[in-house]
Amino acid sequence: MGNFVEWAPGVFRIVGKTGKQKEEFASYLVMGEKIAIIDLPSRSVGKDIISYVKKEGRDTSDIKYIILTHTHPDHWAGISALSKIKPQIVIHESGLKALTEGQKYILDKQFPNPSKFSLAMKSSLFSKIGKVKEELITCISDSETIDLGSEELILQSTGGHSKDSILIQAYSAKCTFIGDEGNIAPEQAASFFIDGTGSSQKRLKLLKMLSNISTEVICPAHQSPVPHPFDLYLHNLIFEHKHTKDTIYDILVSAGEAKIHYIAEEYLNTLGISWESPFEDLGVASTTATAFLKEMEDEGRTQYETHSKRWSIN
Length: 314
Fold this sequence. Notes:
Shape: globular
Mean pLDDT: 92
Distance between the termini: 56 Å
CATH topology of the largest domain: Metallo-beta-lactamase, Chain A
CATH class of the largest domain: Alpha Beta
Number of helices: 8
Radius of gyration: 19 Å
Structural class: alpha+beta
Strand content: 15-25%
Helix content: 25-40%
Strand order of the largest sheet: 1-2-3-4-5-6-7
Number of domains: 2
């Protein structure tokens, strides 16, 4: 069984098996009178959670919710491990088709610029996903509160990393779960990405908002939790976000005009980011660069020519 670490009363973290991946893929267990799982990256983690709940003398029927910080496959590939228990799967409404349509929606919307999508889908993180029946899914819009008895979870739509990203706060435990709004690879600065549905403006808004949230621990999906004070952690995230935007703009100024794949490759090289499969295969650099370019287009600084598929300075 995996290693469960209690970061706050009733809040446990378990790291998924990642194969050749260097990144961590964590699931969190929040145990009140009712039990909620936050993100479920693999069947092995799901089975470990079932074993742990039984070990603690609880009935598996107490597991009432699986709450997804967003619907990228590495956050819900383990749902089938709890199919007999049938907890409610809670997501933002914009992510519904990711679960009900599976790979089709993921390719069309979340990662529309893949370099090797077929390789990504064969990876250990993505190959186990299927489709989820809609009757098992509960959708939220802007915000929602889930009562676990001795704990209350406050869910809030953020829409940065992806349109369906949500922030989850455990009120009593004072833990805040941010999903992938932080860095994905802890050893690489600026190793965040924004998918084809996300927003660079909303990600920055969330990072700034975190400074004012009453919480004791920030819990990312791909890094170890960050205990208070986390001023330096947030400062670095905000700095790298702004630096990435400036770097993409400078690349376009130097090139004059360019297609998205050139801009994406140049910003990765400039910032020293090296994505591995499946992230590289999914084209996350292209979707991230596009998000920033669209933000700068809204600011009147860039423009996109549909016919040539090139970005240029406005």
